[in-house]
Fold:
Amino acid sequence: AQSVSQHNHHVILSEAASLELGCNYSYGGTVNLFWYVQYPGQHLQLLLKYFSGDPLVKGIKGFEAEFIKSKFSFNLRKPSVQWSDTAEYFCASRTLSGGYNKLIFGAGTRLAVHP
Amino acid sequence: EAQVTQNPRYLITVTGKKLTVTCSQNMNHEYMSWYRQDPGLGLRQIYYSMNVEVTDKGDVPEGYKVSRKEKRNFPLILESPSPNQTSLYFCASSSPGGPVYEQYFGPGTRLTVT
Structure:
């Protein structure tokens, strides 16, 4: 079965530190990859997505992610985090299942940024 | 404003008492889906609907029912809730296929079954 793995479940950083959250997917065919963010008490919002083309994808709020096909990875990065980045981050992969598009989510990474 | 709404946002109930969580979207999306979110497990799909009167099971459908009588609404029904259904539930909608596949999520419903 296809899966998405996020190896860091909890990350604690100080403001201005650099961030990299790992994401690996198992599907070997054409994939579309996403990062969603969930701020405390809020719903999921799309940070960025990769469909094709430039493997370095830039999203909102200074986030970016790099698609590395050979490593089945789509890591999320931000050069300098802020306290307001405290949230839970989900990596997801779109696959075709039974003729329809389906999103498979990773378990999530909870990020805490300290002032 | 394009949005997905859910009601109620918070619900505490007792084992066996039937409940319905409503979901509505105003974007004319064909595809709607229900997820549950549990710590350490991410989001898991419960049921989805490709269009009116077309629904199918997701990864964790046991104990849930859905219906899709209108395009905009996709209620989640728990006929006989049990404590293991205590969770955070999200409804989502999107247009299937196409170059831009983005699911829009509702605000979530936190359900506690005692």
About this structure: The interface with chain A takes residues 4, 31, 35, 40-45, 48, 50, 56, 90, 94, 96-97, 99, 101-103, 105-108 of chain B (CB under 8 Å). The mean pLDDT of chain B is 91. The longest strand of chain B covers residues 42-51. The radius of gyration of chain B is 13 Å.
